[in-house]
Amino acid sequence: RPVVGVLALQGAVREHVAMLERAGARAVPVRRPAELSEVDGLVLPGGESTTMSRLLENFGLLEPLRERIAGGLPAFGSCAGMILLARQVLDGRPDQRQLGGLDVVVRRNAFGRQVDSFEADLPFAGVSGGPVHAVFIRAPWVEKAADGVAVLATVAGPADPDGEPDGPRVDRIVAVRQGAVLATAFHPEITGDERCHRLFVEVVREA
Ligand code: GLN
After folding, report:
1. Structurally, how many domains does the chain consist of?
2. Spatial distance between the Cα atoms of 76 and 67, rounded to a whole number of angstroms
3. I want to staple 79 with a disulfide (CB 3.0 to 4.6 A). Which of 3, 46, 163, 206 is the partner?
4. Which residue positions are annotated as catalytic (predicted)?
5. What is the pLDDT of residues 145-170, one digit of tens each?
6. Cα–Cα distances in Å, from 88 out to 62, 103, 173?
7. Long-range contacts (CB closer than 8 Å, 24 or more residues apart) made by 18-23
8. What is the span of the domain harbouring residue 102?
């Protein structure tokens, strides 16, 4: 079984561990550089991306993690994890640090201007067996994706993030893959459906 770490500084660590185990991996929490060096892949859970980037620095994980991701470590970020992996953040905080790995621009709290959370059933490329039930909690969206980034799922969202709640809607990108890096704007760990984690464990096996 591949060893998949779950970054355990903040967020839904236990839920990700349980889903990874169900998806066929051996899941271990990661808090120190030594633990990071032992994993074949890493999940970055949701939480609060500015807090998490500060914790990454405090725990001495920021640079080692950047290096491993640049070296091809498979990574799966959900929500705040997606924000951390993005090349650039809109509406971020000045002290927000990026890990890189995903050549995308994300908008933080993008849907949150109108609603703090919502749920939707989304067709998800690479996941069979019907749509994935997606729970969004103060979620980002991907505003721009480079050519090498595959869009795996979209959801209807406001055309203007600062506009009226019932204004025009467009498809917003909420799941992407670039090489061995996956990210979802929603929380696949809390719905009891492990298919997104299975997809990631497959990516880890292939890497
Ligand atoms: N809004 C949070 C952030 O900016 C992300 C929310 C989440 O992970 N559920 O980091």
Report:
1. 1
2. 16
3. 46
4. 79, 187, 189
5. 999 999 999 999 999 888 877 789 99
6. 16, 8, 15
7. 18/189, 19/188, 19/189, 19/194, 19/197, 20/197, 20/200, 20/201, 22/194, 22/197, 23/194, 23/197, 23/198, 23/200, 23/201
8. 3-206
195 annotated as belonging to a binding site for a ligand: no
Residue tagged active-site, from 21, 67, 164, 189: 189
CATH number at residue 40: 3.40.50.880
Q: Is 93 in contact with 50 (CB distance < 8 Å)?
A: yes
Tens digits of residue pLDDT in 12-48? 999 999 999 999 999 999 999 999 999 999 999 999 9
Amino acid at 47: G
For residue 192, the tally of other CB atoms under 10 A from its CB is 11
